Amino acid sequence: MTVTEKEPFELLTPQQQLDHLLAVAKRALPAWGINAGAGIKLLSLSENATYLISADDSPVKDQSGAPQPVIMRVHRTGYHSKDAIRTELAWMKALQAEAQLATPQAIPALNNEIIQTVETAELNESRFVVLFELIPGEAPDESQLIEPFKRLGAVTARMHQHARGWAQPEYFERLVWDFDGCMGAVKLWGDWREAPGLCADMNVVLENTQVKLEQRLRAYGAGDDKFGLIHADLRLANLLESNGETRVIDFDDAGLGWFMYDLASAVSFIETRDDLPQLISAWLEGYQTQGQLGADDIAEIPTFIMLRRMTLLAWIGSHSETELAQQQGEEFTRGTAMLAARYLQDELLNDVVNGSLAKLSTQEPA
């Protein structure tokens, strides 16, 4: 979220926050004709609270008429406007209808609106709530990611192809993941300098890395062939495997950014894995079955890996209350500094970049 002064919700204890969000979810249920006594299970808490709803009066039924579980998303205040959420849901709908990519579809409430607003007088706030169909799938096996990454690369290329040709709605509004949005003047996720365990030596390395990133990205450019509507959060937690198909969920961070940023987001939190080069190569192989990448795109893979990694570092610093940030902790800061040092020496992912450039040169017409 955009970093601002703390709101009343942020002054609550972690348990009070959970209780409050659960109360919001329960208040929203009747808007879809679901009894407030339905089963509610918290699935994740990050920018938003996501719940699995099980109810006999679920608005989604299978072919036999049996009620099906649905997903409820209770939005964080101050992160997205209603038009921004409408834009997200419109793109997800278009991806499924026009690009045949399975995405979670929003379920209209009884008033035929897909976004509901729940007022909470006790905190003087209002929250947007959306209900989604539950699409089938299992989380990828982290020990066997090569084939899923090939499929993810292909899916990402199809998403980018669709985004380039999509007629954006007149109410279009999304975050912008450019340099300013990631770590410049805007800092959508906060300042990486607030990361846990950041020492003076690490700070120098990361400051120099930020300078290099800005220079490289400015030279790379942001033309329509490089910059457009992206998912922006294709990490493992947002992927599902179903019958040999990789599906993408959680478009909450979708916005305008460099298409190559989607590759970097795919390796979020796993940038220090020994098999990172193989995963990136698999993603590139899959992508190029459905889309094209130029030599300049491939050459900047290390730049986008570092841009995303430092953006995540900022998120960890500004979201210290979350379980994910606490799990990553100071080790993530140390790992980021290590990657940054290699990047400054032009030693980050050299093998995968050079190998991919060599393959590309053999494919290009003489």
How would you describe this structure in keywords?
globular; Phosphorylase Kinase, domain 1; 10 strands; Aminoglycoside 3'-phosphotransferase, Chain: A, domain 2; three-stranded mixed sheet; alpha+beta; 2 domains; five-stranded antiparallel sheet; 366 residues
Rg, rounded, reads 21 Å
| Low-pLDDT stretches | none
CATH class of the largest domain: Alpha Beta
Look at the structure and name the CATH superfamily of the largest domain: Aminoglycoside phosphotransferase (APH), C-terminal lobe
Assign a percent range to the helix content.
40-55%
Structural summary, described in words:
The protein is an alpha+beta fold. The chain has two domains: 8-133, 2-Layer Sandwich (Phosphorylase Kinase, domain 1); 146-360, Aminoglycoside 3'-phosphotransferase, Chain: A, domain 2, CATH 3.90.1200.10. It is 42% helix and 14% strand. The protein contains eleven helices and ten strands. The protein has helices at 14-28, 82-99, 146-165, 179-182, 200-220, 261-266, 276-287, 295-299, 301-318, 323-344, 350-363; strands at residues 39-45, 49-54, 70-74, 116-120, 125-133, 175-177, 227-230, 239-242, 245-248, 255-258. The strands form three sheets. It has a five-stranded antiparallel beta sheet with strand order 1-2-3-5-4, with helices on one face. A three-stranded mixed beta sheet has the order 6-10-7. Strands 8-9 form a two-stranded antiparallel ribbon. A hairpin with a 3-residue loop joins strand 1 and strand 2. Helix 5 crosses helix 9 and helix 9 packs antiparallel against helix 10. It starts with 13 loop residues before the first helix and ends with a helix. The model has no long low-confidence stretch (mean pLDDT 94).
